[in-house]
Design a protein that fits this description.
Helix content: 25-40%
Strand content: 5-15%
Largest sheet: 5 strands, mixed
């Protein structure tokens, strides 16, 4: 079929069509006025949730009797040894007993933010050993091991001493805040 034949066939098909007179088209039900306060609150909650980058996907399982330890490069061996021995004063504590993975995820993220905002250097997270669960899964312990490695503000962590919860708890060493770093620098400059 040639182009002229196609055009004449098209013109014959559309010859009775007239343009619409309305400039607006109604596509659905008209709703009442939007509740902008509810929308704003929902957006703020979604934004707050988006800040939590801790993953609840697959995690490499640890045994209930495994010792957790991690140290970023730059952390002095002496500092890590004192952390491991429980010689730093624990300034903040988070207990995750009877928490789901999602609840623990939110609380660990918030705990880290709170510690950084309040210049807390050493905290402890009590997660339990996980040896009373079916098949001794140590689920929360496994996630804590992963999450603390993923948090940039965590410089080191180690399973706690027996009197602080042993293998069911972990000491956490946080980064110094800029304010604490400056105060430390000034204190050492006066010597």
């Amino acid at each position: 079929m040639t182009e002229d034949e196609e055009f004449s066939l098209f013109a014959e098909e559309v010859k009775g069509i007239r343009p619409l007179k309305k400039t607006e088209v109604y596509l659905g039900k008209k709703q009442g006025e939007a509740d902008f306060v509810a929308r704003q609150n929902a957006a703020l909650e979604a934004k707050q949730e988006d800040r939590n980058y801790l993953s609840k996907d697959y995690v490499e399982r640890v045994d209930p009797n495994d010792m957790l330890e991690f140290k970023r490069s730059g952390v002095q061996d002496g500092v890590f040894k004192r952390l491991r021995q429980g010689k730093y004063g624990v300034e903040s504590r988070l207990d995750l007993h009877r928490r789901t993975v999602e609840e623990a995820r939110r609380e660990v993220f918030q705990f880290t933010q709170d510690c950084m905002n309040h210049d807390i250097r050493v905290g402890i997270i009590v997660h339990g050993k996980g040896d009373r669960t079916p098949e001794n899964q140590a689920t929360l312990k496994s996630y804590i091991n992963k999450w603390l490695r993923d948090i940039d503000e965590v410089m080191a962590f180690h399973s706690a001493q027996r009197y602080h919860g042993g293998l069911g708890a972990v000491y956490v060493l946080f980064k110094k805040s800029e304010k604490a770093r400056l105060e430390n620098w000034e204190r050492h400059q006066k010597r």
